[in-house]
Design a protein that fits this description.
The chain has 406 residues and is an alpha+beta fold. It is 56% helix and 18% strand. It has two domains: 183 residues, no CATH class; 179 residues, no CATH class. 38% of the residues are buried.
Amino acid sequence: MLPLNLRIAVSSLRAHKWRAILAMLGVFLGALAFTGVQHVSEILVRRAEIETEQLGPNLYAVLAGQIRFRRSGEMRTDGNIKTFQLSDAQALIDGVPSVLEGAPFVSANLQVRGGGNAVTAKILATWPQYQSIRSFYPDTGRFFTGREVEERAKVCVLGRKIAERLFGRAENAVGRLVYLYRASFHVVGVMEGKGRDVSGEDQDEYLLMPLSTYMRRASNQTWVNGVFLRLDGEAGLDQVQASVNAIMRSRHALTPGEPDDFASMTPRDAMQLQRQALDLMSTLGGISSVISFAVGGLGILSIMILVVRARRVEIGVRRAVGGRRRDIVRQFLFESALMAGVGGALGVATTLVLVVVGCNVADLPLVLDPTSLVATLAGSCLLGVAAGAYPAWQAAHIEILDILRN
């Protein structure tokens, strides 16, 4: 019976192919929107997890200002906050329990010249402890030392991409000079490839230098942008947070009720904020897919009603030669389910192609969710059955005598 029903369904779709295509279009868009948004969300969550793992073990950051996330997912702090002093960072390193080591930092975007080229780099001035805190080490050469920090030495370490853009190959950068403003800095190392972290910063675009060198020789400032802390693996984050708040509010003389002029964050916090943004995107995508599915269902319903009216003679003949009402119902339900199933299958197939190609082009982790794909196919077929239920009932209750009189 199934091959016969299939032949009849295919014949009907061919006879009304433009109607069928328009009806399937809504289901196609619904399946594409639903599976596409689900996969994009899961891919971005997986990327955030990978970036979190790259940030370093048990990282805890205290930053000047309040944290904001852009729509792109990048993390930014409010304005140019100058209240976070180097002494504040040292007080946190010495006073917060479970802190194993810390590294205050200053960041800025400046033009760097070297090898006859000029690029804009993210300047990160910090201490040597930054390496172990962020699990980020030189691949070629070395990192600057504590003595070079004390001496305000004009040395720097380049991120891999910056080194390649300035000197062609990363290995060619060690021992060369780069220029910030008119000051020259000796390149002592090139960092390993790291990629973007959970805050959206590309760590391969960094130029790292001693904190004292930047604060005294480059910018002549006393404030820092924050401090990176490495905590003991068994540290209680609630206790750490309470200690950070107490120390910072006391040092900044903040009265009760006055908002903090600093923010604390772990990689997991950043990933959770990103998840909230992705959840919003998933919700909006789900709403759009439901609307598309609803439009597709209504399209199939209207097409099937027209098909029933156009095939009244065929239905009457089938009934006259012994066709049962349930056979008529099955036939039209099968046709509507086939129409929706084809639309859903095309949407799922398009999603798979776009996900694979997009992940390869954008260098994103490939994540495929078989559950959502199968659920979308099954949901499309069920939508077709629901949309075709009323037309099928109409077809099954057509009176043979009325058709024969006409």
